[in-house]
UniProtKB/TrEMBL annotation:
Protein name from the UniProt record: Nucleolar protein 16
Gene (UniProt): NOP16
Originating organism: Carlito syrichta (Philippine tarsier)
Annotated stretches, region: Disordered: 1-38
Pfam families reported for this sequence: Nop16
Primary localization class, coarse: nucleus
InterPro entries the UniProt entry points to: Ribosome_biogenesis_Nop16 (IPR019002)
Length: 183
């Protein structure tokens, strides 16, 4: 054993890598709780019956474990002959409420969590306060750390306008008022 490396299972003779005082039976999964395949869906988790198999649970909910078997594709024959479809017996859906709840949840509109960084908002406000609509002057400004081109700065300002239209309008109104007071 050079370099201080130990071989696997060398922590004790016949202990299987366990500590010396540990004589109890070794479970394959340890003391961890079983991992659920559908941990993200509370509807499935609440309707799950741990005494049944995964396939049986999903069949009762009207779901499928293998989508290829749930919706079989018709095999085409040469010369456009009639294709005989074997009718598979429909499995009884005992928990249709799970499927209905999942469909209702999937039909909800997705939340848009798009926000702009505080640095970008401050950058756009500074540029508009000092230069107005002069994008070339903004590009030459010393605060233009990333050396944005006039077109890139214009696009950043337009993004700010789209994300925060009410805040943008209030900002433009405050700039108009300050110009009127000075002028």
């Amino acid at each position: 054993m050079r370099g201080g490396r130990r071989r696997r299972g060398s922590s004790g003779e016949g202990t299987g890598g366990r500590e010396a005082g540990d004589l109890g039976p070794r479970s394959p999964a340890g003391d961890r709780p079983p991992v659920s395949l559908f941990a993200g869906s509370s509807h499935i988790r609440h309707a799950w019956d741990h005494a049944k198999s995964v396939r049986q649970n999903l069949a009762e909910m009207g779901l499928a474990l293998d989508p290829n078997k749930a919706v079989p594709l018709r095999k085409r024959k040469v010369k456009a002959m009639e294709v005989d479809m074997e009718e598979r017996p429909k499995e009884l859906v005992r928990k249709p409420y799970v499927l209905n709840e999942l469909e209702a949840e999937a039909s909800l509109p997705e939340k848009k969590d798009n926000t702009l960084s505080r640095d970008l908002i401050d950058y756009v406000r500074y540029m508009v306060e000092n230069h107005g609509e002069d994008y070339k002057a903004m590009a030459r400004d010393e605060k233009n750390y990333y050396q944005d081109t006039p077109k890139q700065i214009r696009n950043k300002i337009n993004v700010y306008r789209r994300f925060y239209p009410a805040e943008w309008q209030a900002f433009r109104d405050s700039l108009q008022k300050s110009k009127m007071e000075v002028g």
